[in-house]
Here is the input.
Amino acid sequence: MTQTIDMTTALLEGSTQLIALLERHRTSLPFAEEELARHRALRLAIDDQHRRSAHALSDWREALSRRWECEVSAQRLYTATMRQMSEYYSDDPAYARLVAPAHPDSGVTPRELLSDLRRLEASIALLSPRPVFADECLRRLRASGDELASAIDWTGRCESERRSIMLEQRIATNLYQRTCEQTRRLLSAHLHDTSEALAS
Here is the structure.
């Protein structure tokens, strides 16, 4: 994303001189008004995309931060609940296996952590008889899972929006680059024609 912003900034800085030239010579260049209108419209679109891009990036970072907080909280709750269950059922390995994690020794993605929370919640709900602390565990697991699911969903939406805006920026930047090249060709052709007319 930084490369796109840098490229767009460099392009806009370079085109500022081109626009200034068109404005200074708008009465003597037959194509100046049309080119200026095209440049202004594209500059407005690119400026709007810059604003949208900055907003999307901010939203995405906020969503990632929120998801991280939910992950840390969920992982702590998961670990504490597993420890509590393990201590409670220490003499009964069958119960311990019922609530064992799916992948205890590997790092987990946010979605895998959410699955583990839901699995642990379902396992505890099936216990009979239930430990005295089961209802509180279920309430906390459900709430943590819901928060994590919401954070995952929000991060995904923000990421999609950010990628979409980045693609729009690349397209608009390429279009603007071609417009600048076309304007330079028109200027060059005009200067060539003018010098030939003066020479004859």
